[in-house]
Structure prediction request, 232 residues.
Amino acid sequence: EVQLVESGGGLVQPGGSLKLSCAASGFTFSVSAIHWVRQASGKGLEWVGRIRSKANTYATSYGASLRGRFTISRDDSKNTAYLQMDSLKTEDTAVYYCARVGATRGLLDYWGQGILVTVAS
Amino acid sequence: QSVLTQPPSTSGAPGQRVTISCSGSSSNIGSNYVYWYQQLPGTAPKLLIYKSNQRPSGVPDRFSGSKSGTSASLAISGLRSEDEADYYCAAWDDSLSGSVVFGGGTKLTVL
Prediction:
């Protein structure tokens, strides 16, 4: 069974940093691209970014409004992807989801349960 | 302001058929597959339609997707109370360095 489990969320002050983890199981993690998507309370889905597989040089891309503050990485030996968030702003408060790209079904076919990040003083 | 445009809300009575539209451009829907997600209250989004018109196993055939040009639609027939949820369309966008774009979401109310 495919599972994605986010961790590392919580309360952080404006200007601070936080690193989220996305632990994967039930599929071949190393060949799968992993995306991060966020959702502010009562709002829609916003794409954060993605990291591709080793075969695709671990290429990353990010949402335009986030570029430069957020960094996505992965450790295939641990079946885990990461989202490093720096210079956090109050408007970054949201539930953050990781999701994978499936070989057959494609974009964001399985999602984690989400983790809440609150940026407040 | 979402890149893909969806109606904010729609409704229907049990048993009826509803459609949700998703409008984009040549750089996203016009040249890439469309995906639809269902989000029940308090839960993560769930894949409903992939590659514009394919249903994952376990998704009832009451749900169907279509795409034409730069627009796509999700149809739900035989509406049931458990279909009440938020629905999002998504697509890859080839502009700039590439990104995933979402619609703003459509809240479906079953009357």
The interface with chain B takes residues 35, 37, 44-47, 50, 61-64, 97, 105-114 of chain A (CB under 8 Å). The CA atoms of residues 3 and 96 of chain A lie 16 Å apart. The longest strand of chain A covers residues 94-102.
